[in-house]
Design goal:
There is one protein chain. This protein starts with a strand and ends in a 10-residue tail after the last helix. It has one domain. The protein is α+β, with helices and mostly antiparallel strands. The protein is globular. Strand 2 and strand 3 form a beta hairpin. The protein has a three-stranded mixed β-sheet with strand order 1-3-2, covered by helices on one side. Helix 1 runs antiparallel to helix 4 and helix 2 packs across helix 3. It comes from Candidatus Ornithobacterium hominis.
Length: 107
């Protein structure tokens, strides 16, 4: 994991994981274990699936939820990868015992 602070983000987005990097917006950066853990969960998901298949699946899920719900923010929170990451970001030991493709539980 390599953490990079950048001016890449709209203020609504705090961070983004693209294996093996975690990009964190400069305005929101401070060492935040919850945020880092959230992004590390995404890194693990990407390792399991591969980066391109991960983002393809992510995008398809987002579009399906957006079409169903009609709200981009709500659709984002319905993505299985995000449900897993948000649901476990406070557990700093989560990745130690996480089972393979655990995000499928959140579909």
């Amino acid at each position: 994991m390599i953490i990079i602070t950048a001016h890449l983000f709209h203020k609504k987005f705090a961070a983004m994981a693209i294996f093996p990097f975690i990009f964190i917006g400069k305005k929101t950066y401070k060492f935040n274990q919850r945020l880092i853990n959230h992004e590390k969960i995404h890194l693990r998901q990407q390792v399991e699936m591969g980066v391109l298949p991960f983002y393809l699946w992510y995008g398809i899920e987002f579009i399906i939820h957006w079409a169903r719900i009609g709200n981009a923010d709500a659709a984002y929170h319905q993505i299985s990868f995000e449900k897993e990451a948000y649901g476990n970001e406070l557990d700093l030991n989560y990745l130690r015992g996480r089972s393979f493709w655990r995000f499928l539980k959140y579909l």
